[in-house]
Amino acid sequence: SVTRAQSLSLFLLERFPVFWRWGIGHLHDIHSAEGELKQPFKDELPTRQAQLSTLQDTEEFDVLVVGGGATGSGCALDAVTRNLKTALVERNDFSSGTSSRSTKLIHGGVRYLQKAIMKLDYEQYMMVKEALHERSNLLDIAPHLSAPLPIMLPVYKWWQLPYYWAGIKMYDLVAGGQCLKSSYVLSKNKALELFPMLKKDKLVGAIVYYDGDPGVGLVWIRGTGPKCMCKCCWTYQHFRNEFDVRAKCVINATGPFTDSLRKMDDGKNTNICQPSAGVHIVIPGYYSPDNMGLLDPATSDGRVIFFLPWEKMTIAGTTDTPTDITAHPIPREEDINFILNEVRNYLSPDVEVRRGDVLAAWSGIRPLVTDPNSKDTQSICRNHIVNVSDSGLVTIAGGKWTTYRSMAEETLDAAVAAHRLGGGPSKTVGLVLEGGQDWSPTLYIRLVQDYGLENEVAQHLAATYGGKAFDVAKMARVTGKRWPIVGNRLVSEFPYIESEVRYAVKEYACTAIDVIARRTRLGFLNVQAADEALPRIVDIMGKMLDWSDKKRTEELEAAKKFLYLEMGYRSRSEQLTGTTEITLDTQEVAKYTNRFHKFDKDSKGFITTVDVQRVLQNISVQIDENALHEILNEVDLNKNGQVELNEFLQLMSAVKKGQVSDSRLAILMKTAEESLDLRGPVTVDRSGGGV
Predict the structure, then answer these.
(1) Is 502:478 a contact under the CB 8 Å cutoff?
(2) What percent of the chain has pLDDT over 70?
């Protein structure tokens, strides 16, 4: 999947960083399928302050793009390929909104093709055709970030087999020469061989097709017309400043906030976007094969659910429900449970789908284009519109991640025509994204051989940064171990290393959230692992950005709040509360009470870190005291520094029901008990005799 910010945004971070002004700095040629293109800042990225000064001091830009998501960044890129003087402003970080919260799938839209055929809808058909073209282009321009992914559509009724086969073959036909690989039918046995977690009962067979798996109140308008002006207010390191940015044309690419900017332009404008919330969850990788996705074409309420391998985990989603517009969407527990229930319908009964296995969950707001005749958001077309207002504000709204490039091209065509900007045609078809030029499937081997990186880390860097992986490797510190030689991990179970934080700061990461959410995807993969990595991330960034102790504390708290609310940590932690019902039977209560008392030797009714350490010493196990405090704190519901028997029984009851999984305290106490039982009582002889 797109593993750092998003591929497009980071291309711009490297080529035209943060706020772009076309024509500044050293110019040279970059690869383009349609001709030569000048590029500033080849040798070294300018400082953030230099960028802000350029934005403030430039007399007038040709194009000012508002919004740094996939579409806005695409518009900025398209503009500079036309040699237009271009700037972009973003309220937060690149792809910090909808663009970073997608399904991680570059797809043409199978379900839209079905609607096009069933309803004879030419617009839907053309949207699918356009998306398939853009899918093919993106696979070409970002080979390190994207690859064809087989997706299985399991079939449980005989009559559905020819029906779905015909539809998928039509999908291949529409793709034409840009078809990734031809779809095919699988027998029941072959389907179970490739996807052994699949429910066997009544399975007829399956159809496999291919899509692309991508690795991938700030501004208001004050003037219009040929001297359009935008007031920019920015805050950096607690320093606030305001200045005017002049541009011949302003492009509104603000996603869900589209109507807010349109009404700043003209208060009489009516809404053209209807927001829809899409929730995704991440569960362990053992829920799906490493190289095969799954499509549920008809959920219990008529939606479509994807089930995809992503970063060695499994991502499932999405929901589609009306929502209010907010910069900080929160995943709802009912949406998480809806996805889990749909997953259960397709997996074997041998696979227990547990709520406690949800490692992260997030909600993204889709800026859907409103159909006045629709009754709900599910029937809204994902197509886009380009609108030029009477004052000249150019708005791009709707669409989907896959078609960002063609949307940007159409938007700039409209802007050039409306404002007579001149410049040449778009050159973005075939324009290779940053990192793609020097990438090869074996690049990671050179990283292992030249720098002494772990194989898994090297593969991650090559698949994330492409040819730029060497820049990250050069910043890696020596580990002090025999192997790996360099590359200290941020957390043990993920291949993210400390030098990626340093590189992220080079790419203008300003907050710890920027790093855990967009420069890496740690916050999207496992909220507990991200929380564990935060102190080290803040320490590295604090040294590089000269943060005060107060600033470091603020960054740590802000990132923890982000994980708690927006990445599903709250929903995960609320599975075990002081009101959790104990549903253990009599034998289970006796079993777990006995286990508890092996730690509570003094029969206090509670255990502390001292009690746990004493038992661990008896079985020759050592755990860092701070780590032990964290382990107990996960179960200490009343936060009094100790775990009572009732709290422990609540934990084991939640584990039994699947509400909690991978509880470190539960596993630690079970393992310790087993070790104690194996050792048995200490005899007099073994203790050195007696008197």
Answers:
(1) no
(2) 79
Helix, strand and coil in the chain, % to nearest 5: 45, 20, 40
HEC readout, 20-61: CCCCCCCCEEECCCCCCEEECCCCCCCCHHHHHHHHHHCCCE
Could you give the CA distance from residue 235 to residue 161 in angstroms, rounded to a whole number?
A: 57
Which of 72, 416, 391 lies closest to 252, judged by CA?
72
**Three-state secondary-structure class, residue 146:** strand
Q: Tokens at residue 22, please?
A: 């076309």
For residues 439 and 458, what is the distance between their CA atoms, to the nearest angstrom? 13
| pLDDT for position 427 | 93
Three-state secondary structure call for residue 309? strand
CA angle, 12 then 13 then 15, to 5°: 55
- pLDDT, average across residues 208-212: 75
Longest alpha-carbon distance in the chain:
103
The per-residue pLDDT for range 498-525, each reduced to its tens digit, is 999 999 999 889 999 999 999 999 999 9
The secondary structure of 197-263 as a DSSP string is TB--TT--EEEEEEEEEE----EEEEE-GGG-EEEEEEEETTEEEEEEEEEEEEEE--GGGHHHHHH
Contacts of 457 (CB under 8 A, 6+ apart): 484, 487, 489, 495, 497
How does residue 14 score in pLDDT terms, banded at 50, 70 and 90? Answer: very low
173/163 Cα distance (integer angstroms): 16
